[in-house]
Design goal:
The complex is a heterotrimer of chains A (about 160), B (about 450) and C (about 325).
Chain A lengths: L1 E7 L2 E7 L5 H8 L18 E4 L2 E4 L12 E3 L12 H9 L8 H14 L5 H7 L11 H17 L1
Parallel strand pairs in A: 1-5
Antiparallel strand pairs in A: 1-2, 3-4, 3-5
Helix pairs in contact in A: 2-5
Chain B lengths: L14 H5 L15 E7 L5 E6 L1 H4 L4 E5 L24 E2 L5 E7 L2 H8 L3 E6 L6 H4 L13 E9 L2 H7 L2 E9 L11 E6 L5 E5 L4 H12 L6 E4 L16 H11 L3 E4 L2 H7 L2 E2 L2 E9 L5 E13 L5 H11 L8 E10 L5 E2 L9 H16 L3 H8 L19 H12 L6 H4 L5 H6 L11
Parallel strand pairs in B: 1-12, 10-11, 13-17, 15-16
Antiparallel strand pairs in B: 1-5, 2-4, 2-6, 3-5, 7-16, 8-14, 9-10, 9-12, 14-15
Chain C lengths: L1 E13 L9 E8 L5 E4 L9 H13 L7 E3 L17 H28 L7 E4 L2 E4 L6 E3 H7 L6 E7 L18 E13 L5 E13 L4 H20 L5 E2 L2 E2 L19 E6 L20 H13 L5 E2 L3 H11 L1
Parallel strand pairs in C: 3-4, 10-13
Antiparallel strand pairs in C: 1-9, 2-3, 2-8, 5-6, 6-7, 9-10, 11-12
Classes of the chains: A alpha+beta (about 160), B alpha+beta (about 450), C alpha+beta (about 325).
Amino acid sequence: MKTINLKINGRKRQIEIEENERLLDIIREGFHLTGTKEGCGEGECGACSVLLNGKLVNACMIMAFQAEDSEVITIEGLGENEKLDPIQQAFIDTGAVQCGFCTPGMVLSAKALLMKNPTPTKQEIRRGISGNLCRCTGYEKIVEAVELAAKRIAETD
Amino acid sequence: MAFKVIGENVLRVDGHTKVTGGAKYPADLALENMLYGKTLRSTKAHANFTIDTKKAENIHGVVGVLTAKDIPGKNCHGVLFKDHEAICESRVRRIGDPMAVVIAESERIAEKALESIEVAYEELAAVFDPEEAMKEEAPKIHGEDNTVFHFKIRRGNVDKAFEEAAVIVEDTYYTGAVDHAFLQPEAGIAYEEEDGTLTVIAATQYPHFDRMDIAGAMGMEEEEIRIINPAVGGAFGGREDLTLQIHLAVAAKKFKRPIKMVYDRKESFLAHCKRHPITMHCKTAADKDGKLLALKTRIVGDTGAYASWAVNVLRKAGVHITGPYEIPNVWVDSYAVYTNNPFAGAMRGFGATQPPIAHEQQMDRIAEKLGMDPFSIRRKNLFTLGSKTATEQVLRESVPLGRCLDALEAAMNEKPLPDENINYLEDLKERQAKKEGAWNEKNR
Amino acid sequence: MKKTGKGIGIMFYGTGYGNGYPDISRAKAKIDTDGRFTISSGACEVGQGAKTSLAQIPAEILGILTKEVIFDHEDTKTTLDAGTCAASRQTYNTGNAMKMASESLKRILESKAREILNLSEEEPLVFDNHEVIVEGDPSKRISFKQIANTADVGDLEVVEIFQAVTTKMNEETGEGNPYWPYTFGACGVEVVVDTETGTLDISKAILVQDVGRAVNPKLIEGQMDGGFAMAQGYALLEDLNIVKGEIKHHNFTKYLIPTALDAVEVKKIIVEDPESSAPFGAKGIGEPVMIPVAPAILNAIYDAVGVRITEIPVTPEKLLKAIKEVG
């Protein structure tokens, strides 16, 4: 047992962790933020993608102690109050959501991409989200959603 | 006819909850005082076994280990035949068969305790090739005969047609087993309600069927079982046969506490069915103009250790092996066969996905021999209004296959779609074109 | 060397359990005392969009918005059996049951409205925004809630059952009507094969799908994209590598499904030809969208490099070996 401090979705939190716990475990079981999904536990599917200090990571591949004093953003931390993040809204508007299990990770993957590159080409989007598997959509409408979100963000800036 | 809602790109009603992480899949649920289950699975493809769970039961934090004797009702389930044991009693028929379920205070304790269960296997001869399995001397998986099903079509006289044919093409095609690989691995929770109702929450494709199979295994009335189907993370046919539902129900009733089980990816691969691997031997004949004369085919589907939907899948394969073509003389033998492979069941297309691997290549080969192009040979033979299928079924309406092919040819050649031939309902294009913004402010 | 080829595949698909097996869906439609509309039916939302597209059916009939339809489908305690979410049968079967239940409820509401408003049988009524209104005389109107307040318990609740019509085939000849309705489709692809490595790119992809009638074109397009990708995996990537009954590829490192870089942009063409026994003519398409894709890829490979692949998946190793064999 060890206590760590971290900031999660803008709030400072303290949590007791066990040595072998993963960041994914404390997000889902410690903080009850179940929007972050576990699809493979091996860093292959991206369903557990979160932003760790602004960088996209698979929370199943990070040990909890590594998150000490870090800032974590999960899907629950996107958007402001009732207003969705433009990426979330674009996913709804383009039909980029089907079963929805990959969606939180996919949205965060898109978020990380647009933070680095606000005007990605289709191919850059495909590369950007290639670590996130989706079995339902064939990715096409997800790519459209990211394009649309980029466009909307540029228009409001 | 003008519709207001039909034909509109209404936004997904579950979109908001899914993009915000609010949608609850079974693994996202938790209840007070919950226990966790982990399944011990067979590492042998065909064996008798004895099991000793004492050591595991004595581990601190383990509340019990379920074995076959803990199933209060009938220890069986299955979508067609009840040939699965919920927990195998003394014999396993495939790698991955469930043999025991550890129930413990934490997932880690349950997982660790699996290692302390002692299993003694007595291996049996196994068979992995369906052709071998059909032979009389093959080891038997269930009962006396490994052939689960034989479907036949006998239409016209194929032998005579082959004699008269200008061209005959013959080959064997094979399609492998694949997995649904839905992103959400199996998970679920079960608990007893105050009135005695046994509630199971698990992602499924058919809650009422799950209820029936669980009631059978519990020896309870269907009305005493309640199934809640939360958000489902993809299915594609892989959530029709039960996986963890009966284990959850038995444990919740026995230990009087909520039980949660979550499979990891590897266990998900082991637990649910696969697409049937199918071998299709096809002999197809046409006249000199490319008109199909005959098809003779032998189809063998490997359903693995359990039947699941084998009968329906190999029946569907047998009906669809002609392709969407009029063929006057057809001979089909389609078999479903038990082996000791992972069991096969429903997967998107359900026995209609495999046959085109064969019939569409046969069509191109005939076209090549006759110097025809792939579009012409198909147009000459395809189903149109009033066509008869090989089972003598008359297609009386909604047969726009020719229009599909016209549209495809235009698009392949980057020409505009032949609108007057395609005959879209007048406003479809307009409806499709309504994108973001214009479409559906009113339905947001 | 890179070689390009084109290929096509066409298909038909018989909907439902088939072969005379009772293929039944049930739905219950009701108006509660607040005037809200609920439809209960055990059809599953597995990602395909049933929760949305099926709800469009009562919305159309009762003149309300899709999002105002309370579609109760998750709990066996409150829903009726609607069969498996499989065999592309929910749009057709449960869609029909929901349409029948909604229409029956609509007739009850009409008759109650005539009674309360003292209208003759001839006066035409329209349904809009939870109200029954006399066409051409909007001063004569009554809300669902007002009707509910005058009705007895159970008056505004109706169950309907739909059963698909198929027949059992003759066991010796196969004669019979095993499925209904049938759905059709076509796919065409252009591939570029690298003859040095056996790798393959899909440079053009077209999928044409007969849908009967498109209830929600965007959801159909989503199915078409997803079906294409799954079929691409089936044809080219996915191999469980089962050795003596053991699955060797049991994770996503070894069992490869298409990523965003593998998947391609598919031109999607929806063809409508309403089927009279289907709800508003709509047929199921969840499975059909996948079916013509793999053979189109195989035919394109032959067109590109002259090798006939009779076993899938066509992995680069397999394709390279086949190319070398033909020389």
